[in-house]
Amino acid sequence: MPSLTLYTNPQSRGRIAHWMMEELAEPYETVWLDYGTTMKAPDYLAVNPMGKVPALRHGDAVVTEAAAICAYLGDRFPEKGLIPPPGSPARADYYRWLFFAAGPLEQAAVARSLGWEVPEGRSAMVGFGCYADTMNALELGLSKGPYVCGEQFTAADVYVGSSLVWGLMFGTIEKRPVFEAYAARVQARPASQRAFELNEARLKAA
Predict the structure, then answer these.
(1) How confident is the model at residue 203 (pLDDT cuts 50, 70, 90)?
(2) CB 3.0–4.6 Å: which of 33, 63, 109, 143 could bond 172 by disulfide?
(3) pLDDT in the model for residue 191
(4) pLDDT digits (tens, 9 = 90+) for 32-59
(5) How do beta strands 29-32 and 4-8 pair?
(6) Can you tell me the distance from the alpha carbon of 126 to that of 118, in angstroms, rounded to the nearest whole number?
(7) Residue 10 sits in which domain range?
(8) 93 shares a domain with 184
(9) Cβ atoms of 7 and 48 closer than 8 Å
(10) Using alpha carbons only, what angle is made at residue 12 by residues 200 and 95, rounded to the nearest 5 degrees?
(11) Do 177 and 100 belong together in one domain?
């Protein structure tokens, strides 16, 4: 079995991938990188030319972007039960909400954080349309079951859950009962707590 190596930093989206690694429960190596130094060093730029984290090396395969890492690992290790069966309605929900969170939700949250306003009449030009529509769509999606695919926790919940937890914490996602209940539910998972502890320990050691 090819080895798994996660490149990350505790103050980055690498926490999402770290949670996914803990859900996977497969042996892996963690390579901690620092902004401006090792993250921009030639060795790491050969892995990710963007000089950003997270990145995953799995044998000869390299995957960057947290959502892609979650999707890749769910697909590569289907026996872990972190991806719904092919062709099922739940698989459609899996892809829908994973990419919704990586696209419209992140765009809407970043726009809110930076004070960006979509000019009147231009909402069709941006992927999230408007902030209110994005939040309403997400609330509707999360109201249908404990997780985005219903009863089954999947890799999509790692990404959507991370987005909500951080958005609620920093105020880029407005507090709604459905959001807060979902965030609490996914944060209670042992793998989420282990990943949190690993990253907090790294911060304290730095």
Answers:
(1) very high
(2) 109
(3) 98
(4) 999 999 999 999 999 999 999 999 999 9
(5) parallel
(6) 8
(7) 4-81+192-205
(8) yes
(9) yes
(10) 115
(11) yes
Q: Are residues 177 and 126 part of one domain?
A: yes
For the chain, the domain total comes to 2
Residues 69 and 112 in one domain: no
- Alpha-carbon span 204 to 184, nearest angstrom: 24
Q: Are residues 173 and 134 in the same domain?
A: yes
What is the value of pTM for the model shown?
A: 0.95
Asked if 44 and 22 count as a contact pair (C-beta separation under 8 A), the reply is no
- The verdict on 66 and 113 lying in the same domain is no
pLDDT in tens, 118-157: 888 888 888 888 999 999 999 999 998 899 999 999 999 9
Residue 60 sits in the same domain as residue 145: no
